[in-house]
Amino acid sequence: MTMAKKYDYLVVGAGLFGATFAYEAKKRGRDCLVIDKRNHIAGNIYTKEEEGINVHIYGAHIFHTSNREIWDYINQFAEFNNYINSPVAVYKDELYNLPFNMNTFSKMWNIKTPAEARAKIDEQIAQLNITDPKNLEEQALSLAGRDVYEKLIKGYTEKQWGRDCKDLPAFIIKRLPFRFIYDNNYFNDRFQGIPMGGYTQIIEKMLEGIDVRTSEDFYDLRKTAVKNADGTYTARLSDGAEVSYDRILFTGQIDEYFDSKFGPLEYRSVRFETETLDMENYQGNAVVNYTEREVPYTRIIEHKHFEFGKQPKTIISREYSTEWKPGIEPYYPVNNDRNNALYEKYAREAAAEGDVIFGGRLGQYKYYDMDKDLAAALDCVNEEFGE
Fold first, then answer.
1. For the residues 150-161, what does the mean pLDDT come to?
2. One of 137, 216, 255, 319 is an active-site residue; which one?
3. What is the pLDDT of residues 91-144, one digit of tens each?
4. Given 83, 179, 199, 331, the catalytic residue
5. Is the peptide bond before 169 cis (omega within 30 degrees of 0)?
6. Is 268 a catalytic site residue?
7. Rounded to an integer, what distance in angstroms lies between the CA atom of residue 122 and that of residue 131?
8. How far is residue 196 from each of residues 105, 182, 200, 204, 312, measured CA to CA in Å?
């Protein structure tokens, strides 16, 4: 009988959080086995080269941060270009720049100055006379006025959430960023870009020299797990190989880990329709949002523009926001009051699991931008290793 291969950590999930933890653990002399149920590493930041274009398989990912340490950290693994996210919004036959800025307002109202734009928005808000917003529609109208709401917020938001704006809570839109300058840069962060050559290479470099098993289901493995007298665990992989480990870093759904004993948490998901087109340039921009409710997709991504590509063909992805149900990929936690209260129950259970660390977007039921996910992973490392 062969001896089980011994690891300090079983890392469940080969996305950014899990890979960062494994990379840092290896630097500290710990052995990790990283498993992922998908047939590839890199989680939702996975990029795949097709037609010479790095396709963001699970939707557009643009790295942006104001944290110099995080920016320097990620730049160890790839060279980033100077891509600036400047989405375009399409409403019927009208085109607008995002975020809401003077280019947006001048196109919408044929005005030129910040004073004119402010006056127009203030006038529309005053006409509505909403003092205590009861839902998202009233909240957005009280912040933006009717034109901006009707053309750029209403339809897009309803598609994102799968509900009428009147049926969504007001707190979802606490504020709306208006810029009274001619600036189409979507993010306010100091550092921004796309890794030249895609994101997958970053995770590949992080996991260099670390044992990785893809197409490996944690729940199948868990069924075989036995706790040994010395406190370690022994379990079997899908090919029958035995492994042992001391602790688990878990980046899957926290409710699923506990068999949804308090009830399932809610998520939103995204469906993609991707096609290759025999043309050099389809829409002239990486991200174009479709803000009408009647257009079924929320946006179209043209992947080549993230890296300023000149390839003879182009690849586009239409994104459809959908309700999540078991069996499809969960993307966004629905962090309303009900779900947050439910998550707290699972968090208390997680705190009692002495040999398991929960991390990442699904493990902590929290929407993370990539820089925040990376920072949270490094915080987790520091906590685990007492630094």
1. 96
2. 319
3. 999 999 999 999 999 999 999 999 999 999 999 999 999 999 999 999 999 999
4. 179
5. no
6. yes
7. 14
8. 34, 28, 11, 14, 19
Known catalytic residue at 361: no
Q: In sequence order, which residues have a C-beta less than 8 Å from that of residue 187 and are 6 or more positions away?
A: 62, 64, 85
Decide if 51 is catalytic.
no
**Helix axis angle, 114-128 to 136-144, nearest 10°:** 140
How much is the pTM? 0.96
Whether 236 sits among the annotated catalytic residues: the reply is: no
Cβ neighbour number for residue 304 with a 10 Å cutoff: 22
Task: Give the other-Cβ count within 10 Å of 31's Cβ.
Answer: 16
Catalytic, 116? Answer no
338 is catalytic: no
Q: What is the pLDDT of residues 159-177, one digit of tens each?
A: 999 999 999 989 888 888 8
Q: Give the number of other CB atoms < 10 A from CB of residue 207.
A: 21
